[in-house]
Amino acid sequence: MLMLMVLLLAIIALMILYIYLFHFNPEAVALIYYWDHSISGSLAVFIICSILAGLLAGLLIHFLFSASYKVASLKVKRRDQRNLETSRLYRQGLNKYLSGEPEEAQRLLEKVLDRDPARIDAHITLSDVHIGRGRLQDAVGTLTHAREQNPDCLEVLFKLASVYELMGKNDETEKIYETILQEEKNNRTALERFREYLVRQKLWGKALELQRRLVKITTGARLDEEKQRQQSLRYELAWHNLQRNNFKNSRAEQRELMEILRETPDFVPARMALSEVCKAEGHIREAAQALQEGYLATGKSVFLTRLEELYLETEDPSALLLFYRTALEGKSRDLLLHFFYGRLCLRLEMVEEAIEQLTIVESADVELPQLYLLLADAYRRRNRFDESYAAFQKLLHVSHATELELVCEKCGAKAYEWVSRCPQCGAWSSYALADRKVFQTVTPAVEIPAPKYGKPEGSKASPTHDKQGE
Fold this sequence. Notes:
single chain, elongated
């Protein structure tokens, strides 16, 4: 109705304009529209026709634009509907994958990719489905198609690298990471993942090179952590070279280990490695010194265990006894030293001294099954059966574990032999005596006597005599 009113008003306005112009311009005029071609008519007619032609042209343009807009809107609506349907299918496929229905998930995800081959998320989820079903080659094919759709998508490249690693294709894995780093040389995620891959492959030299690049781009609180990891990789490379060369021509590696210790004095693996090198070269005194310095610097029991093994292998317990006695003169309240000293005395049949040292530890209310077992054995050897029985009773109430356990202080993994790197969480220098905090949080309740310098029972040699000096 409104449009009709507007149209009528426009017609009336044009008629009024025509009458007005014709009244003032009654004469005819000639309009030349081509060479020697003209048309005659009233000026008012020409003006009105021009206005009408302009209006018609405007209406035509408006119609064309409106039609094109409607066509474009229809295409967008259809595309949005298609995308919504594709997204719905993708969510269904993802839910099937998470619900443990890989066959149905694969069917739905393949349908998604038929509708929209550029859906990177569908490619990646489908690759996860293939990985879960053990079809690694199919996963590679899916990810390769995704890479063709979007060559610069890092998520696809990282996933492809992980699949190649699962397949054992190390060359392809390294090429993927190198491709990423060629485009973004300081990509932290790529550097870290590539480094961890190289660590898993025990390619220590390459891992160390990447770690040095990481240290250069790291600032703030993470810098210390990255530097510590660099020290660990330096150690692994040096230790690998030592083992590869059977500890021969090891001067360069020894210098590297000593440099690591100069920068990180509490790094246990480097001290242990130095001791092993000296032992392999027949330098027992230097090997023992490295272990002794390690304990004094870190307080880690692994050094005492290795010292005991070293001296008993060389049949020279007297040097170890001398170390314990000397160390206790300066650290008389170190219960860990008393415990290991007492254990060694018992092994050497120095029973009275063993009981004395172990009693010092027990007086601090240390509830350690290994302590009660040693005390029970020591009392039994002296025919003090009541006290032996009492120690056994305490042992039964504490735990059935009778061996000293080591525990990773990062993840809690347990072991009975020290290793430089935790096999579960990958942390270096993290293993320590499981109960070492027990020794650190208590103090002896009895007066600590000066160490006795007796001989092992049945031994003719003085335990203070250092055979290494011969």
